[in-house]
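HUMAN:
Sorry, I am quite new to this. Are you able to go through these amino acid letters and fold codes? The numbers rather puzzle me.
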Amino acid sequence: MHLTRELGEQIAAHLTPGPWANVQDENHRGDYEHGKRLALRYAGDDTSLHGAQITGVIPYRAPHLGLSIEWTCHMWGPDNEGFLVERLPYAVRAAWPGSSINISTTKTPERIGRELSKRLLSYYLPAYREGRAELQRERDAHAADGALAIELSTMAGTKVLHLHTHMHNHTATMPWRVNAGPLGMARLTCQGGKVRAEAFTMTPDQARQLVRLVSTWKGSSPLNRGAVRL
């Protein structure tokens, strides 16, 4: 059996909720050309499902048998933004039986589409939607932390220090750091709507009060010169 574009379009027509489109991943061009792979992507108006995709592959372990198609879920958001399964709450992960199923190649495209909808999409799409929602919440919180860090650094007349470039696809979970004034001990970390200074945490209003106090400090310190490196 070959997984042709025509077969993909026939299966996509029976996926619910829809519509779905037959697409091709350029990283696997050879598999598509030889009829070993299909990729179906959600093409509807529900923006929370944009990027949802399932892939059908004739397993390499026994391609000559042609007994089944292995269907797997794509767990990255649009433009490969964040690995969504890492952000799913435990209850969502526990209710989801898996990201892969096998369906016999002898079944009709209509039957395959119905089975995919019932056995895979009914679990995958809610999980995908929740993963994207959690990723957006992380980004919103991270942006708010960044705005607070910029506000505090402006008050202190210093700059924002952060470490966002060392963890691929995890930028939204990284903290912002501020050198709050001439004292090295006043370095602040903004994360999760909280501000931490050394061994204690504070609210944003408390952090503003601290920065006002430290920025007017007249004492001397060997750390008074320049920003403190992390």
Q: What stands out?
A: Confidence is low (pLDDT under 50) at residues 220-230.
